[in-house]
Structures are given as structure tokens and as C-alpha cells.
Amino acid sequence: MRHIQSYVDNAKAKEVGGDSRVKTLLKDIQELAGSLSDQFECFGLVYVSQQPRAGEILLGIAKLGIAKQVGLTKKKRKENLEDNLRSLLKIKRYVILLDDIWDVEIWDDLKLVLPECDSKVGSRIIIMSRNLIQLAKRTYNGRISSCRIHDLLHRLCVDLAKESNFFHTEHNAFGDPGNVARLRRITFYSDNVMDEFFRSNPKLEKLRVLFCFTENPSIFSPMVHFDFKLLQTLVVVMPQNSEAVVTFPSKFGNMTYLCYLRLEGYICGKLPNSIVKLTRLETIDIDQNSMIQLPSGVWEAKQLRHFCYIDNGQASNSCFSTSSFYPNMYSLPPNNLQTLMWISDKFFELRLLHRSINLRKLGIVGVSDSTIKILSTFSLVPKALEVLKLMFFSDPSEQINFSSYPNIVKLHLHVFGSMSLNSEAFPPNLGKLTLVNFMVDRYVLAVLKTLPKLRKLKMVFCKYNEEKMDLSGEVNGYSFLQLEVLHIHYPDGLCK
């Protein structure tokens, strides 16, 4: 058995060589199985399509010789194949290789037919997969954006997580006090259940992750009575349609291991000064609809990586502004920010971005003509920047020019009106462009067609002065050379 497993591992390791090499290795496995005939009474290898049927797989097992080896006649194969195959395999020592089951439901159907592997008999069912970790999405410059795991591996992870109490929801949170005290991850979406749980379980010393979908503005008050020192992730989601005035207790800063904080919904309140003590806090993600005030010390946090926050006129106390809060802001040490969204242009000094040498995502609200001029004239944006989002409250009179920023691959322009554009307005390697509330005419469209590497164009609430959008080629031959995806959401004035 160890010999077969080593060949299987080798097949997975050499997957990069292509299907032909994998099939060669599988052939070697078959030859190896023949040499081990004195140890196994039967062996079968079945190739499974990506749209399999359980009956076809069982018939494939029979056709590969197992049926004859276990004494399954042709008549029994046709009549009641499942029961006959199961009863015979129970008493035989076999190895079955399945290459490659993609669907969890198919495996569930097969388990009803194939007998469970008895450790005393030594039978094995081996499921091979060419790609347990699969590519799900690429970025617009070809790099890997996200991956997914095989469905069977996902099912295995979920089952093992349940067995090991890896996560809980409010439906299975109650039980033995000893087990509840060891909870690490839990999600609540009912205020009554959450309140009852916290009242009956005051000691949750091992809790790491807490997700709360709630309408209760007093959600943070009970937290002062619990020992959440090991809590690493806190996500609170409240309704968007009603204002919730929230009080954050000063003991909020006692969660010394907190590294991710997300507040979503129409939340009003002020984070306590004690949050500055959270030296492991790397992400602060506050919804755009929230009205949260931050202590000025947050901007000094060296460990902060991702900061998403609509300041609503409070950014004057940030280290990116020339204010009395930071009289020596030019001498402040570099920070580790990788994401900075959405800071107000009113209090923003682009000259101070030199402190954020690792910045990859930047969003500015209320962009002024002076900011456009600086961005278009000087390369003040960090070289690592890949995503730039700009929101204008009025029609800009300055012409944007981002041709000097080769690393920017995503650009978001939110303009309540029109903007003059030309081919020099865009970064040379731009892969994704989002236009919001934009006035689109034939001249703007002609410029967009010339972008050499544009793969995705998204237009949201855009206004069109013509009923028809012409995507055909121009006289010069340009017509979206690499465009793959075109999203048009809520068009105004466009018929086709």
C-alpha cells in the first residue's frame, strides 16, 4: 500500500508536466498493482469526467476487471449492479483509484454502494485530483488573485472543522459548558440568542473570531464584562436603513490580540483612545455609511496595514495633513500602510505620501483641481501603488494625466458630471477602469477604445447623450484591443 501511495504522491507532484505525464504515472501504478497481486485480490482505475454519474463510475469499475476478479458475472453486472458489487467487495481486499471526482454529491452516492474500508481487510479507495488547489481568478496583469479548493477537500475541511469545534453558529453554540468555554470562532445573527449566550457563558477566554449581525446599538457594552484578550477578528454588521448610536467602552482597548476590525452599517459613535493600545491591529475597515470618529493616535500606528474609512471632515487630525496635531509631520517615520481609503482631499497632503512606501491602494474623496495638477505633474504616488480611486464632487477643470504611473492597473473615477479625457489620462498598464456617474459621449468612448491593456470596463450610473453605444472599430483600427468584460449598470439614456 505504501508503494501505491508513493506513486500517487509522485503523480500529483509531477502534475505540471501535463495530463500525458500523469497518465503515464497512472499506468505505472497499474503495473505496480499487478506486481502486488499477491497482496490485493483486485485492483481498478477509473477516470471520472467533470460531469460524472455514479452509475457510470460503478460500471467503469466493473469493466476494468474488478467484476471478474470478485466473481461478478455479466448478468449480475446488468441486474442490480450496486448491491451485487457491494456485497462482493465486502469480503475482498481491493484497491480502487478514482481520477478525478469533482462533485461532492457524486462521492456521497458512491459511498452508499462501495463498502467502507475495513482496516482489518486492508482495502482502500484512493481519490486522485490533479488540482486540489485551483485557480479561481487572475488580476488584470496576469497575477493570481484568488484560489479555490476542490469540492471534496472543502467538504473534508468542513467535516473536520465540525469535529474539532473549529467554528460555531448560534444554532450549535450551546451545550456542555466545558466545550463552550473552548469556543474559538462563532457567528450570531439574532440579538436575543446572542444576549442569552453571553449571559450564560461569561468566560470565553479562547474566543478568536466573533461575527455579529445585529440591530442592537448596545452590543459593545456587554463586552466589557468578558475576557476577550485573545480575540483577533471582530466584525459587526448593522442595518443600513436606520441610524445606530453606538457607545464604545474604554475597555475596548483591552483586546490586545485584535488584528482585524470591521464596522458595517449606519453606525454613529467614537472609538475610544484606548484603541491606540492595540499594537497588533492591522486592519480597520469602517463602512462608508458609518459616522465613526477616530482618535488621532490611530494614524501613528506602525503596524496598521489596511485603513478604509470615510473621515467626514475629521481627517484634519491625521498624519497626512498639515495640522496642529502633527507639527513635525515631515519628520515622522515611514508607516506600513498598504491600503488607504477614503481620505478627504480637504485635509490631504500628497507630499506626505512618501511615508507610505508600501501603499498599494489609495482612495481620495472630494478631489480638487490642485490635487489633479500635483498628481499629473509629479510622481508623488508610491511606486508600489496598483489601485487608485478618485471621487469628484464637481466637474474638474484640470486635465488628468496618469501616464507616468506604470504600476497602476485599476482606476476608479467617480465624477458627478463630465471630465475631459485623452489617451494620456490613463496609466499605460491599466487593466480595469470603473466610471461612476460619468458623462459618456462618442469622444470619451473613442479614447477608451485606444487603451492597449484594458480588460474590464465598468460603467455605473453613467449618462449617455446618444441612445446607441458604438463599440465597433474606428478609422485608426482601435477598438478595445484586449477588452474581456463590459459591465453597464443602470445606464441613463442608453437603449442599445
UniProtKB/TrEMBL annotation:
GO terms for cellular component: membrane. The keyword Repeat applies. It holds the Pfam family NB-ARC. Keywords: Coiled coil, Membrane, Repeat. One of its GO terms (biological process) is defense response to other organism. GO terms for molecular function: ADP binding; ATP binding. Residues 208-489 form the Disease resistance R13L4/SHOC-2-like LRR domain. It is found in: Membrane. InterPro entries: Disease_R_plants, LRR_dom_sf, LRR_R13L4/SHOC2-like, NB-ARC, P-loop_NTPase. Residues 24-131 form the NB-ARC domain. It is a peripheral membrane protein. PANTHER family: DISEASE RESISTANCE PROTEIN RP, TOMV SUSCEPTIBLE PROTEIN TM-2. This is NB-ARC domain-containing protein. It comes from Solanum commersonii.
